[in-house]
Specification:
Largest sheet: 5 strands, antiparallel
CATH class: Alpha Beta
Number of helices: 3
Shape: elongated
Oligomer: single chain
CATH topology: Thiol Ester Dehydrase, Chain A
Length: 143
């Protein structure tokens, strides 16, 4: 879905839907995301620790989810867009073997600043809503 051209603010309308993005959830993604974000909590890289906590396998940390949410919007918006804020709420865990589908919709525009609010939901194919929130992104007036 990566957009090599930046979306112009004037080309975006409230209600526009972003294309869905499917992300296979793998152990490598979970462990790599945790380590890259310096989250060494054992449940994110040690199956036995996750099982002791009541889950069948390692599970994704919030920083990886946050990164995927931001990536989803910037892939749509393009390289000249700037993320201003991400508000995220977690739901069901993402475990290896799941597939998370991320969807989004433009919810608001601010003509004075060129900022767009995109509502984002990531649902996995086993337990449902993994993450939901809003990404606030600044777009150039002209692309």
């Amino acid at each position: 879905m990566s957009n090599t051209k930046t979306v112009a603010y004037k080309a975006v309308q409230v209600g526009d839907k972003l294309p869905p993005l499917e992300i296979p959830i793998t152990s490598s993604l979970i462990v790599g995301g945790a380590i890259a974000s310096r989250d060494f909590t054992p449940v994110h890289h040690d199956r036995a620790a996750a099982q002791a906590g009541g889950l069948p396998d390692v599970f994704m940390n919030i920083l990886t989810s946050n990164g995927l949410m931001g990536r989803y919007v910037t892939d749509w918006a393009g390289p000249d867009a700037t993320v201003k804020k991400i508000d995220i709420k977690l739901g069901a865990p993402n475990l290896p073997g799941f597939v998370m589908t991320i969807t989004g919709e433009v919810k608001a525009k601010d003509d004075a600043t060129g900022i767009v609010d995109v509502a984002v939901v990531g649902e996995n194919n086993v337990w449902g809503m993994h993450m939901m929130g809003t990404v606030r992104v600044a777009l150039p007036k002209e692309a």
